[in-house]
């Protein structure tokens, strides 16, 4: 699998005239070779010339963690007193177009620019890897599906009243949901937003010491990473709101509009449809219903090894969905100082139509918890 | 406090001829303004011209998370369809020397280089912030101390046999230690290495499904982040080894040598001493005792808002320790396929001599757990 991905990457490099690909921290490296670099000041970097052997430059004390794959890459451990940037530059050779991983620490990019040939053109590695990673193969879709099913089980526990809410802080509930993600098989919790009442009007609210009260609507947006034998993990991401009592009419009305808009957007996600059209399928009815200025973010983001990746479901993205594209559909309505609502599923575009991976109840469930 | 730090940063920029400082994800931003950027594809960046107002460019949906400090920075939220890179470039103006945060995603550095004036010189922000952040003020030392005391309490629980070991997997013990770090007051677990038997020969071993057995030596290296009202958190980091039964003579001998070397290195950490001399104070006796080729890493790293930061206690670093420098002293001895040992404290250089913040028992404690 990794050898096959390497071939596709080399072909894309050739098509774009890229001489060398440099990958460090971030999702490209585990996707390509099954190894995740530690985010440390000690540089780990895969050097992949368009032609010639790939080499993983790695701190000697990380080397024991690497599962060697001699058919895919050579290993070049560096010692504590060595300069890994010089080692990378030597392996890269006289490149005139260099692609570097989007999440590589900027300091290393500057260091490399200082020692590699002047006048080289530097581009984001995602120009090469983004379109390849966006098209999930069947094993990747299967991993996203089991991750989504695990997230659904946690959502069902929330909706079933098994997650105590009233009288606990948002932070406590967030920790509880995180533990449930692990219990259901994720190997890492990426986030667990719990936003009660007016806090839900901030889409990325940080769960804090606020105590959840009767009558509040609680927005929960959570996800983790599901391990696979390939060495790369795949992400889940789901949002459900629950209500600790009958919601006020304006909230119930807004939720009805939101649910319909979300479903319309999912239904629009056919192969060949532009990403911006999928965004519009959620946005247009909300604008028509008067919620336009309260839907303050894009409709969704791609998902895979990375929580957010190509394709982005956003106005201005005219790229067409392809079979295997996996992404969130998550419109929201936010009323500052009062309440917020969001509804999110992960969807895969397939030749047989849009496939929603999340099946947890889509209604604003009343819970007594 | 933030205004005072801003003044020191501007003075350092002037001394180094830097026109604008650009800070995104990573520890510089919370240290300087109390806000931590989310590691997302949506750019958050502080633009600090050497003269003129600082501005925090932030995605609109993150803006509610920002604690506004109008005396320190202006807020510039950007909308989903806007280009934040262009917004940063406009605020930065015609800079000829640009400093950018070391951990800024490389993709954003390339994007900024593409739209900011050609021919500008780009340098790491740590050239400005590193020396300033390395010298901890009394409040920062106090935060490191309470974090170290909390880590010590967890180490004491480990050494006191309160953390079950035998029959559990490394991963389970790692999760247990992580939970204890939170219970003792950390707000985030950064890592909890648990390496049993031969696994400890890999300094950054990832705790896995291996079941811990009677008779093994178990290396535990763990730390978290301690919250402070300033908005920046400070890190703990400690390593202790425990033995599930009397260790073999070669392990006991190695531990004695390691403990003496670690104590000698701590004792050497006076203001004015070169970092490389502190490294040598641990390394020389281990080399003399025949362990030189098994001590495969530097002696330590600075610590503060970041787990690893300036100053690095490593051969080749001739910089002298200054009052307020805080760093780890953590020599190790690793025998591949057999066992590994490491002993680590956090130490602050003060005018009254080296101050070791960790006080947990430094011996190879026998535990029955």
Automatic annotation (TrEMBL), chains A, B:
<dbReference type="GO" id="GO:0016787">
    <property type="term" value="F:hydrolase activity"/>
</dbReference>
<keyword id="KW-0378">Hydrolase</keyword>
<dbReference type="InterPro" id="IPR000587">
    <property type="entry name" value="Creatinase_N"/>
</dbReference>
<feature type="domain" description="Peptidase M24">
    <location>
        <begin position="143"/>
        <end position="351"/>
    </location>
</feature>
<comment type="similarity">
    <text>Belongs to the peptidase M24B family.</text>
</comment>
<dbReference type="InterPro" id="IPR001131">
    <property type="entry name" value="Peptidase_M24B_aminopep-P_CS"/>
</dbReference>
<dbReference type="InterPro" id="IPR029149">
    <property type="entry name" value="Creatin/AminoP/Spt16_N"/>
</dbReference>
<dbReference type="Pfam" id="PF01321">
    <property type="entry name" value="Creatinase_N"/>
</dbReference>
<dbReference type="InterPro" id="IPR000994">
    <property type="entry name" value="Pept_M24"/>
</dbReference>
<dbReference type="InterPro" id="IPR050659">
    <property type="entry name" value="Peptidase_M24B"/>
</dbReference>
<dbReference type="GO" id="GO:0046872">
    <property type="term" value="F:metal ion binding"/>
</dbReference>
<protein>
    <submittedName>
        <fullName>Xaa-Pro peptidase family protein</fullName>
    </submittedName>
</protein>
<keyword id="KW-0479">Metal-binding</keyword>
<dbReference type="InterPro" id="IPR036005">
    <property type="entry name" value="Creatinase/aminopeptidase-like"/>
</dbReference>
<feature type="domain" description="Creatinase N-terminal">
    <location>
        <begin position="5"/>
        <end position="133"/>
    </location>
</feature>
<dbReference type="Pfam" id="PF00557">
    <property type="entry name" value="Peptidase_M24"/>
</dbReference>
């Amino acid at each position: 699998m990794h050898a096959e991905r390497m071939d596709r990457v080399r072909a894309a490099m050739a098509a774009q005239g890229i001489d060398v690909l440099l990958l460090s921290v971030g999702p490209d490296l585990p996707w390509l070779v099954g190894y995740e670099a530690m985010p440390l000041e000690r540089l780990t970097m895969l050097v992949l010339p368009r032609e010639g052997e790939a080499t993983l430059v790695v701190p000697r004390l990380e080397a024991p963690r690497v599962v060697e794959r001699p058919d895919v890459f050579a290993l070049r451990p560096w010692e504590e007193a060595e300069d890994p940037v010089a080692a990378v530059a030597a392996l890269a050779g006289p490149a005139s177009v260099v692609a570097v991983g989007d999440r590589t620490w900027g300091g290393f990019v500057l260091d490399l620019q200082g020692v590699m040939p002047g006048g080289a053109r530097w581009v984001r590695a995602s120009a090469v890897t983004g379109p390849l990673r966006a098209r999930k193969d069947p094993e990747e879709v299967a991993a996203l599906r089991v991750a989504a099913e695990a997230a659904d089980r946690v959502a069902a526990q929330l909706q079933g009243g098994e997650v105590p809410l009233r009288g606990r802080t948002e932070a406590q509930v967030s920790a509880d949901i995180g533990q449930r993600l692990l219990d259901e098989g994720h190997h890492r919790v990426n986030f667990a937003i719990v936003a009660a009442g007016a806090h839900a009007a901030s889409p990325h609210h940080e769960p804090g010491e606020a105590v959840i009260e009767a009558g509040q609507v609680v927005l929960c947006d959570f996800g983790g990473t599901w391990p696979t034998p390939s060495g790369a993990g795949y992400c889940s991401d789901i949002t459900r709101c629950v209500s600790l009592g009958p919601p006020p009419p304006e909230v119930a009305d807004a939720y009805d509009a939101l649910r319909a808009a979300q479903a319309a957007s999912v239904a629009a996600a056919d192969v060949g449809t532009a990403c911006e059209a999928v965004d519009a399928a959620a946005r247009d009815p909300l604008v028509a219903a008067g919620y336009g200025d309260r839907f303050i973010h894009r409709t969704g983001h791609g998902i895979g090894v990375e929580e957010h990746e190509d394709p982005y479901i956003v106005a201005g993205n005219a790229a067409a969905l392809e079979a295997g594209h996996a992404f969130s559909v998550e419109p929201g309505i936010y009323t500052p100082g009062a309440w917020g609502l969001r509804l999110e599923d992960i969807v895969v575009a397939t030749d047989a139509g849009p496939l929603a991976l999340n099946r947890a109840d889509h209604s604003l469930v009343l819970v007594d918890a």
